[in-house]
Amino acid sequence: MNVDRARNVDRAMNVDRAMNFDRAQLRALAAVLDEGTFEAAAARLHVTPSAVSQRVRALEQQAGRVLVVRARPCRATEPGTVLARLAGQLALLEHDAAAQLGGRSAGEDGARAASATRLAIAVNADSLSSWFPAALVGLPDDVVVDLRREDQDRTAELLRDGTVTAAVTADEHAVQGCRVRSLGAMRYVAVAAPDVHERWFADGPTAHALERAPVIAFNRTDALQHRFAARLAGRQVAPPVHHVPSNSAFVELLLAGLGWGMVPQGAAERPVADGSLVELAREPYLDVPLYWQHWALRTATLDDLTARVVRAATAALRPV
């Protein structure tokens, strides 16, 4: 019985030791995954690539699993995403604790650069090109942001795997370990150049017309056009699709008559007013509710960022 108790104690001690991850090793893992290569991670951490490699390898030995797929760019394995998320959360907590203790002066440039905390944020392209930048005006000097442009329907995936700290997303359901709050709705308008409208939709946006008329989408994950078309047609349609991953080129190609598409209401107002674009239907609107999700940590940095995002969204988006 004493032998069994001793084994249990030893096993518990081993588990406890296994969970005491080294901070330098966690930082190295996060840097490799953020930067994509060991060399870039080394430059960010001001160490040699060999040192970064040794730290990541030591962390993998402790975890007993491969954490990084050595490719270009490097990417995390499933266990790697768990530890990368832990690294980001610890860095954020340490940063806020140091700030509350007054550990460094905001006027010390070298210290500020060394202690800056990085916030990876996923934002959909339309928000990024319209209301979201206002949320970052006046951001504290010791906070740097890494904005990832992603479709609003996919940003929740980046929260799940720990790639980003926060996201503007269309998912109202909180990702595990995250908090969520409503921001408002972005209104999109279905528009086309007059000649496109006359050629394909002279009899209205019928299911037959929507099936044949070319459509412009931002990328392969942009489902707005298909959702709107399905609403009008009463069924799913499969029109020919042009993919144009640029906000300015998207509108330019609509004006040039490449096809029809959905644009934010603010971007459509002027061309619709001057007749260079026309609305596709009598009720051409599609409101997309947006939500702000972030790690479920109560820190001053995240609270401040959330307050900024909510203010910017309230000023620009429609009530849900």
From TrEMBL:
<keyword id="KW-0678">Repressor</keyword>
<dbReference type="InterPro" id="IPR000847">
    <property type="entry name" value="LysR_HTH_N"/>
</dbReference>
<comment type="similarity">
    <text>Belongs to the LysR transcriptional regulatory family.</text>
</comment>
<keyword id="KW-0804">Transcription</keyword>
<dbReference type="InterPro" id="IPR036390">
    <property type="entry name" value="WH_DNA-bd_sf"/>
</dbReference>
<dbReference type="GO" id="GO:0003700">
    <property type="term" value="F:DNA-binding transcription factor activity"/>
</dbReference>
<dbReference type="InterPro" id="IPR050176">
    <property type="entry name" value="LTTR"/>
</dbReference>
<dbReference type="Pfam" id="PF03466">
    <property type="entry name" value="LysR_substrate"/>
</dbReference>
<dbReference type="GO" id="GO:0003677">
    <property type="term" value="F:DNA binding"/>
</dbReference>
<dbReference type="Pfam" id="PF00126">
    <property type="entry name" value="HTH_1"/>
</dbReference>
<dbReference type="InterPro" id="IPR005119">
    <property type="entry name" value="LysR_subst-bd"/>
</dbReference>
<dbReference type="InterPro" id="IPR017685">
    <property type="entry name" value="ArgP"/>
</dbReference>
<protein>
    <recommendedName>
        <fullName>HTH-type transcriptional regulator LysG</fullName>
    </recommendedName>
</protein>
<dbReference type="InterPro" id="IPR036388">
    <property type="entry name" value="WH-like_DNA-bd_sf"/>
</dbReference>
<keyword id="KW-0805">Transcription regulation</keyword>
<feature type="domain" description="HTH lysR-type">
    <location>
        <begin position="21"/>
        <end position="77"/>
    </location>
</feature>
<keyword id="KW-0238">DNA-binding</keyword>
<keyword id="KW-0010">Activator</keyword>
